[in-house]
Amino acid sequence: MGCGNSTAAEPESKPAPQGGAIPQNRTAQEKMNVPAGQMTVDNAFQQLGLGEKPVINESMAMDQVNDNVELLQDLNNMLFDAIKKDCAEINRSYSESDYFRLWKAAHSLKGAMSNLGIMRYAAVCKAIEECGKSLEAAVAAARAAAGDAPTEDDNLEKKLEDERHKLGVYIELLAQQETEYRQHYAAFEKRVLEAAPKKQ
């Protein structure tokens, strides 16, 4: 599952990572220290510290719109459109291993979300951006070292494979956070509308 409620196409040789629960006897610290190649959505959530962040920083969101409910609604509709566009780009770039386009899309989405206090979603976008940059640099270094010929460095291949797996997990986590954001925003908007002065 990719972000934006769409499925990211994945090369047959490298199936999309599946996030899942890890054994319940694992401590929180152990979950945070899982190697990239063994990461799941569960321990990615732990590593990124998402449990310590609000889904939406509501006071920040209202400050950004000067308590204007209609502006809040308009901006969130724009964010939903941005998710659709940028997540499509993230999914497509991941399937094509185009890490430059991928991290640029994640960077754009991160900024839009951060501005309106969508904290968890923005944090996952940041992780995707950083992972995309890391993969872009690693691929470029591998090509330079091998003169653009296929590399036979098993350690490098394993590192790239593990980083790509981690990136796929982050993209899956982003889809989960989109669902949370939409649910929390619906409840947030309802409360704001109920508290707003009634027009005469």
CATH topology: Four Helix Bundle (Hemerythrin (Met), subunit A)
* Strand percentage: under 5%
The largest β sheet comes out as:
none
Rg for CA atoms: 19 Å
Order of helices and strands: HHHHHHH
Word description of this protein:
The protein is built from 7 helices and no strands. The protein has helices at 28-32, 41-47, 58-64, 69-95, 99-115, 119-146, 154-195. It has 200 residues and is mainly α. It has one domain: Four Helix Bundle (Hemerythrin (Met), subunit A). Helix content is 66%, strand content 0%. This is HPt domain-containing protein.
Question: Topology, pairings included?
Answer:
Blueprint: H1 28-32, H2 41-47, H3 58-64, H4 69-95, H5 99-115, H6 119-146, H7 154-195
Protein name: HPt domain-containing protein
Keywords: Phosphoprotein
Pfam families: Hpt
Based on the model shown, name its key terms.
elongated; mainly alpha; 200 residues; Four Helix Bundle (Hemerythrin (Met), subunit A)
Task: Give a short synopsis of this structure.
This protein is an all-alpha fold and 200 residues long. Helices cover 66% and strands 0% of the residues.
